Amino acid sequence: MKKILYFITIALVFVVGCSKPQPQPKFKPTVASLQEYETPKWFNDAKFGIWVCWNAYTVPAVGDWYARNMYIEGHPHYKYHLENFGHPSEFGYKDIIQKWDGEEFNAEELVDLFVEVGAKYIVGMANHHDNFDLWNSKHHSWNSLNYGPKRDIMGEFQKAVRKYENQGIRWGVTSHVERASCWFQTNKGTDENGKYAGIPYDGNNKKYEELYLPPDPNGDVKPTQPSNAPDYWKKNWLARCKDLFDNYDPDFFYVDGGVPFPGDDKGETGLEMISYLYNQSMDRHNGENQSVMCIKDWYKKAPKGEWGYYWDGIATLNLERARLPQIRKKPWQTDTSIGDWTYVKNGKYRSTKEIIHELIDIVSKNGNMLLNVSPMANGKLDNKAFGLLNEIGAWMKINGESIYGTKPWLTSGVGDYRIVKKGNDLLYLSILNVPESNKISIPYIAPQNGKSLEITSISILGNEHKKVKWKSDGNGLHIQLPEKIEFKHALVIKIKAEHFENYDETPILKLFDRKEELTQWWKNQTITKTNSGYTTVTCDAKNNSWAIKTDNSLVEIKDGNEIDLGIKAQDVGANASGIVYVDLNGSVFIHTNHHLQWVDFPTGIKRITHKSKDGKIWLKLPGLKAKRCDITQTGTVWVTDQNGIINYYDDLLWKPLDKKAEDIACGGDWISPVAAISNGQLERFDGTHWTNLGGYDLKALDISIENEVLVTLNKKGNVTLFDKMGSIEIDKNEAYMDVSCGSKKGTPMVLIGIK
Question: What positions does the domain Alpha-L-fucosidase C-terminal occupy (predicted)?
Answer without folding.
Answer: 422-496
